[in-house]
Automatic annotation (TrEMBL):
E.C. no: 1.3.3.15
Record's catalysed reaction(s): coproporphyrinogen III + 3 O2 = coproporphyrin III + 3 H2O2
Ranges of residues in domain Amine oxidase: 15-235, 307-399
Biological process according to GO: heme biosynthetic process
Name recorded for this polypeptide: Coproporphyrinogen III oxidase
Gene3D superfamilies per UniProt: FAD/NAD(P)-binding domain (3.50.50.60), protoporphyrinogen ix oxidase, domain 3 (1.10.3110.10), Protoporphyrinogen oxidase, mitochondrial, domain 2 (3.90.660.20)
First-level EC class: oxidoreductase
Pfam families given in the database record: Amino_oxidase
Key word Repeat present: no
Requisite cofactors: FAD
The protein's annotated pathway: Porphyrin-containing compound metabolism; protoheme biosynthesis
Organism per entry: Leptospira perolatii
Amino acid sequence: MPTPHPDRIVIGAGFTGLLHAYLALSKGESVLVLEKADRGGGLIRSVPTEYGIVETAANGILNCRELELLSSKLGLDILVADPAAKRRFIFTRGKPRRIPLTFFEAVSLAYKAFTVPSKPLEGESVLHWGKRVLGESAAEKLLEPALGGIYAGDLDTMSAELVLGKFFQLNQPTWKNLKHYASENTSKPVKTRRGTVSFRGGIGSLVAALEARVKKEGKIKYEEEIGSLKQLRGKYPRAKITLATNLSSSLKLLRAEFSELKVYQGMLQTLPVVSVTRFGKDSILGTGKGFGILFPKDHKTYSSEMGIRVRGILFNNFIFPGRSVNGINSETYIYGGAGDREIATKSEAEIISIVEEDRKKIFPESSSPLNHYVTIWKDALPEYSPQLLSFNRDLDRILPEDLRVEGNFRYGIGLKSIIERAFAQHSL
Ligand SMILES: Cc1cc2nc3c(=O)[nH]c(=O)nc-3n(C[C@H](O)[C@H](O)[C@H](O)COP(=O)(O)OP(=O)(O)OC[C@H]3O[C@@H](n4cnc5c(N)ncnc54)[C@H](O)[C@@H]3O)c2cc1C
């Protein structure tokens, strides 16, 4: 039940804040969540439309033991990606290809995987790591589109320790590190379905279920923007605090409290991302099925082949059942990131015409769309830079027991990392 003197205050009712609030409540704490907006969920929203569901941010979650536990506690059924949609493509040499490397490049990658030590070096960029450990071609054609698609960052300014450190812990070649990582994760007792998962009504169903529980067992106050941790402590002197906002807000609140964090002002960047869901009658893949296409970018010019601007396309109705009405294809186009900040300054109409131009370059027979749903996030994702790594290390060092700082800038950008960290902190 809500109390006037909660044990814990959570700032931010995005996915991170709601999850931490829910876990604290399930351990018997009384919790008050304070959210700036008039609704919860933060970046995440699953919008039902005439032609199908539109996700404003995350489309899927990499499954893990903790998500299986959470879903079963919330009474939600996990929706597994359709095995027929497993095929992932990379756009090279004029078309989407499953294996973008030539025979010799593939042989060279295999040789390096068995011989080159893959633990990231101190201060090494992801681009440097990729060229050293995988080779130039694999770094450009595999690593760049894959990580660019997740982090929206420039590989040359991303920290290899921060992004790859947990997968490559041993000073051993790639295959040994991947085996080690897999063995650490399979020793967990709960049966975990593999791959990307979601829920029937979209990722928003998970957020809605968390929000409903937190409202029932604790309290959420909307339209409550926190401007100072000191003032909050004055009002709730006995409460522990979980700060679960985006990077910019967290830094602003923490800088005023901890003088050693002032240096990070202007050093930590966030990246804009634009997501467009397009409904139409034809599919880029013709009669085939697949998960999505990634587009390698040159890390200096940020251009990809044929002047295509999109970073990645997801085939929503192939991945999860029920994502669009019968006979309609739903594709999500992701733009922006380090190389294309400009896209977030454009109007919806301009963005839609960029989507249609890109689609025609990839699929010249492209027919007219039925509808588009555009979401523009101006500072959606943190840049996973070496400065962000040292910010995280400073937080680990200086935060007092009664203050936690969580979010997509704490050692993992995706929902899987946020869930795993939250469960570990609550010792579940
Ligand atoms: C286009 C896109 C696609 C993505 N796709 C995937 C995907 O497929 N899989 C995946 O795992 N991840 C994906 N992500 C990442 C994932 O969606 C985010 O990392 C995650 O939703 C972040 O949640 P959060 O709660 O930490 O932050 P947010 O969602 O930003 O929530 C922070 C909350 O804090 C509130 N707040 C801020 N300041 C204050 C204040 N001062 N006082 C009170 N409240 C405040 C905000 O209003 C907001 O509600 C994607 C992200 C984007 C943008």
